[in-house]
Amino acid sequence: GHARPATMGLYEVDEPILARYQDVWYEGKVVETEPATGATGEARYKIHFQGWNSRWDYWEVQSSGDLMADTEENRAKNMGKGKGKGGAKATATGAKDGAKDGAKDAGKKRPSKDDGKKSGSKKAKTSKKAGDAGAEPEAVVAAPDAAPELARLRFNLSTSLKRELIAGWEKITREEKLVRLPRSVTVSTVLERFESETRAKARSPEQAEMATEISSGLRSYFDRSLRAVLLYAQERTQADALLADGTRPPSDVYGAEHLLRLFVKLPTLVPLKDMDADATHLLHVRLQDFLRWLQRNAASSFGCGYVGRDADGRPTDEVKEPEKVKEYAAPVVKEKKEKASPDEKA
To answer: Among 23, 173, 190, 339, which one has the highest count of C-beta atoms within 10 angstroms of its own C-beta?
Structure first.
């Protein structure tokens, strides 16, 4: 690289860079710079992620460790190696870079920002703990024994669900807030609503049973993976305090905000190698059904409150944002005659 005076900073406007978001590296570009001034003497850069709406641009300081020059070497080290799966992935890259970087970006993990345009991409593949910003960037590279593309669950998150994820990330990692816990609407509550609604609409006992299986499966995965992969580093102290005594599972403390993060991680958590294609497809359809349900019921599921965070990472009593969750109204389902038990049938 070419050295520049410290006051000028490392990067210039329009310079392509790699920026780390939720522990994964993406292509970005510097759209504005602020020279080093004041006590910290640090230059700041406004970063734009390729393929994202500019409303997600944000400022980052040089010392954050979340920016690096966009070089072949840095890409090779941090953005996954090409695994011959460039086809589906090429569309995940901004239109400008798609064709030329498709092969290079094969192993790259980026949030689905193209709003459903890419049929198969998923949001993240790292098994690294979310939010351990101090960890080596190399940890981001997809494991060499990562399951082949077809053997993974892939979810298309709607634009508004993606916004929920990003808004939470910004509040916790950038604005020093914490979700106010326990949530008034917990993961358990959300899954119970989904299950009872889906069972009521089921056209067969098998469909009803599937709703129960999906609900209990998601709860089990959530409880087992929350501390391992669903928390940002800034949330660990709060989690340790809330879950230490083991009396309550995470699904009775956390809400839809954290449940949504599970869908980013599910592709790496659910073992599909022992499932046949039909079972895999059915599981995927049912999980996508749940995401659609969550989208429809977003107002009564999300809207958590936020509190401040002290220097030790503990939540403060200061309410930064009040809870904005709406009342849930279960849909009225017409009674189905065929579901009556034999002795009720006249």
So the answer is: 190
Question: Which of 182, 84, 164, 76 is CA-nearest to residue 123?
Answer: 164
In the sheet with 16-21, reading across from the earlier edge strand, the strands are 58-61, 42-49, 24-37, 16-21, 67-69
Give the pTM.
0.57
Separation CA 343–CA 346 (nearest Å):
8
Burial annotation 145-158 (CB, 10 A radius, 16+ → b, else e):
ebeebeebbbbbbb
* DSSP character string of 244-313: TT-SS-GGGT--HHHHHHHHHHHHHHS--TTS-HHHHHHHHHHHHHHHHHHHHTHHHH----EEEE-TTS
Partners of residue 21 on adjacent β-strands: 24
Of 257, 260, 256, 262, nearest to 227 by C-alpha is 262
